[in-house]
Amino acid sequence: MSLLLDALKHAQNSQPATANGQPAPKKSHLITYLVAGLILLCAEAAWYFYQSYKYNHEITRYTIQQKQAASAVSPAPASAASQPLAASSIAEIATALPATASGTGESIKKTWTRPLAAKPAAKKRKTAKKSLRLPPATDALNEAYLALSEGRLDQAEQHYLEILSQQPREKNALLGMAIIAHRQLQTERAADYYRQVLREEMGNAAAAAGLVSLSAQADPVAAESQLRELIDFKPGAAEFHYALGNVLARQERIGEAQQSYFRAYSLAPRNTLYAYNLAVALDRLHQPAAALPYYEKAAQLSRSSDTAFNREAVERRIAELKSSP
Fold first, then answer.
1. Half-sphere CA count of 190, side-chain side, radius 13 A
2. What pTM value is reported for the model?
3. Residues 178 and 207: beta-carbon distance below 8 Å
4. Which of 150, 197, 199 has the alpha carbon at shortest distance from 174?
5. Is 231 helix (H, G, I), strand (E, B) or coil?
6. Segment 279-306 mean pLDDT
7. Spatial separation of the C-alpha atoms in residues 165 and 281, rounded to whole Å
8. Is there a contact between 267 and 238 (Cβ–Cβ < 8 Å)?
9. If you write DSSP's letter for every residue of 150-211 in order, what string do you get?
10. Between helices 238-250 and 272-284, what is the axis angle to 10°?
11. 105 to 97, 145, 164, 200, 266: CA distances (angstroms)
């Protein structure tokens, strides 16, 4: 606008005066100045709009770049989302002691609940070496577990009850009491302890499998259905596969039982009874060559104090299989 005013003033000043001092009549060149002023005005307006557009474009481009950089750095969102006596000598589920009954096994570390996000490893600090000692509660659990594994049920029960008198919600002691009651065929008492364990830890596979197995003899079809549902929910729980194997073995469905025992053993290869029951199932399916290594593995894993495992009978069967052509 200032350019237009300047042009008009210049045009006015450039007009020649008449003899009387009056402005000369308008000349054609005045129109030229007006046109030039309008052109300058348009040019100024165009320059102003161009600068505004350029500024807005730079702001938009910067914002887009910032968003792209943020999306490249931020991680992608996680997608919505892992043991009844058969006619053969297949062992009872209650004798397959879960490691949690001792309070020190790997099952304590591998919870059946949602996995926690991995935490960055903390820097190791150099400290003086100290002798490690288990806390008293864990010592008592170990003593109770040892008594239970050796078949000293009365002593094991005494230890577990002492722990529960001080810690009524200690799930490992509750599970130990459930196993003792299960072995003593105290169905209602065992079920009550199994339920207490599940109240403390809903995802405890040993308690869930034990609870289902209590009803297997009365209603094997319902028990099988429940175990298959549990397996679908948690396929990595060896206890469920082992319990299902026992339910199937009771129905003389040895081929299916063998498959369940194999899955249980694959998930927990250091469990004596998983290896033993797999060997028995293969033996009953007339596959002695396949059964032999599992008998040997069971004998290797067993302890002389383990009353739930007849080591002499297993070693005798191993000798028979090795001597047969």
1. 21
2. 0.60
3. yes
4. 197
5. helix
6. 91
7. 42
8. yes
9. TT-HHHHHHHHHHHHHH-TT-HHHHHHHHHHHHHTT-HHHHHHHHHHHHHH-TT-HHHHHHH
10. 30
11. 11, 11, 19, 18, 18
Q: Please, what is the angle between helix 288-301 and helix 311-323, to 10°? A: 140
Angle of helix 254-267 relative to helix 272-284, nearest 10 degrees, comes to: 150
Q: The tokens of 273 are what?
A: 């009874």
Q: Supply 38's token pair.
A: 């309008």
96 CA to centre of own chain: 25
**Tokens 């002593």 belong to residue:** 155
CB burial class (10 A; 0-12, 13-18, 19+) of residue 227?
buried
For residue 111, give every residue at least 6 positions away whose Cβ sits within 8 Å of its Cβ, in sequence order, or none: 201, 203
Structure tokens at 14: 């450039």
Q: What is the pLDDT of residues 61-115, one digit of tens each?
A: 434 344 433 333 333 333 322 233 333 455 544 345 554 454 444 333 333 333 3
| Alpha carbon distance 252, 209 (integer Å) | 20
**Contact between 119 and 275 (Cβ < 8 Å):** no
**Angstrom distance (rounded) from CA 213 to CA 184:** 14
CA angle (258 as vertex; 252, 264 as ends), nearest 5:
125
Per the listing, tokens 């199937």 go with: 248
Backbone angles phi, psi at 317, to 5 degrees: -70, -35
Question: Stretch 224-230: mean pLDDT, rounded?
Answer: 95
Q: Would you identify the CATH topology of the domain 93-107+135-323? A: 1.25.40
- Tell me the one-letter amino acid at 191: A
Which backbone phi and psi does 207 adopt, to 5 degrees? -70, -40
